[in-house]
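ok so i was messing around last nite and threw this chain in just to see what happens. nothing serious, just curious
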Amino acid sequence: MLADKAPAAIALPAEVSSFPRSRLAHARSNLRLDAWRVQEALKPGVAVALYASLSEYNVPMEPRVSVWAEVTRPDQSTFSVPLARGADGIYTAGFLTTAGGVYTCRLCADGYASEGTPFTREKTLTAGSI
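result:
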């Protein structure tokens, strides 16, 4: 019989099973956040415009979404900027660079998909001045 030919289970020592574990999962979704920024120059005091769009199955999403940016200045201080939805479905906001260095802009969106399930999306952009 097959049970008689199956190999015996291997017992691992207790210390082997106590190692920390890490898991990484890749998932695909039809809900997409696209984000970009426009900056005319690389000097302090220049405006940075942030743009975002959300689509589900390549169709712009209904306005059941909150979109904002968490901006980190070169001195590591932070501030939040809400992005307003335009008539074309593009979310926009802006800020001024006040000092030289890199500005990290973490754009976040959360809301409800067409089926009513909650979602969250993030994208990081950078702007800068010298």
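not much to say yet. The radius of gyration is 23 Å.
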